[in-house]
Give the backbone structure.
Amino acid sequence: MESIVEEIRQCTRCPLCATRNKVVPGEGPLNAKIIIIGEGPGEENDKTGRPFVGRGGQILDRFLMQVGLNREELYLTNIIKCRMPHNATPSKNIVEKCITFLDAQIKVISPKVIITLGLPAAKAILDNATLKLSDLKNRVFQRGNIKVICTYHPSSIRYNKNASQDIINSLMIAKGLSNEE
């Protein structure tokens, strides 16, 4: 993982390298049973180099606590490792330049479950550009031998009143799957 993180830090594959403050490679134990993957770093992440430390991260932490998952036992990362200007959705080209880092991280960690937060992360992990999150939520998909759960990004609860329960349900499903033998 150290070599992957170093490669991310040195990356100049796309124009985001010119505007980032810090890369946000991800964090957590390398033996994590669950990886949580978001779209990309926000403003606070870009300042700190840590994923999910802004408002969305605080909401995620609250949901994790509600379902009995410990953030320190999870690996948290994003499909892209640098902040998009104005938190825009990354283009297909930018995702393609960055996805090899995520694939390498998944290979090293070899989790039982991946939880995607938001549609861009779901599309990247399931490799399908035509998906709708409403069709994916609370369902279990396979990516090789890893189970994939797709749900809303925690920040979406500001405009989607039903998202909170959907996120909690998805976390509960993932917790159960991660404990299966």
User: Anything to note?
Assistant: The radius of gyration is 15 Å.
